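Give me structure tokens for this 195-residue protein.
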Amino acid sequence: GESLKSTVQTGPFGAQLHASDYVDEGVPLILIRNIDGNHLNPEGIPKISLEDAKRLERFSLQENDIVFSRVGRVGSCFLATKKHKGWIISGQTLRIRLPENAVNFDYLSYALQGDRAQKYIVDVSIGSTRKSISTKVLEALPVILPPIAEQEKIADVLQACDAEIELHEKKLAALQEQKKGLMQRLLTGQVRVKV
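Here you go.
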């Protein structure tokens, strides 16, 4: 496979930021608990002051940066969008930044979640008890890069699948809610069933 030439930035060391620095209104700080499989879950995301964000500017995100969980759930990653611009990565994460036209970023995001890349990440992860990944590991990631046009088509197909899955998940959640309501009414005798 082809290696991706990239800039890999490890998040700031713990000493540069403490939980006591969190504020109610400010710039979001991405912790590994917010990286959920292949997307960012902003629920309960801590925020830091604008001053702290400015001080930690080199750890900030641009659109199309890929953020990896560095410890714990190794291999979890997400692709930054416009709305994540300026957000700060924490010391538990790594940021990959590639040249603008190097790759279709949606394709790359899928490729990194694929079995091949994930197996590689897990296999070379350092530390047997607490899995972690280093910048060297990421720079040598085995990712197959077909021509850009093909990457775009592959990404389109997989995005259509994701949209379909999301739709079914919403339907399933609605059905489960419906069942819950029905159980409540039937099992408390609010609604009687004719026999």
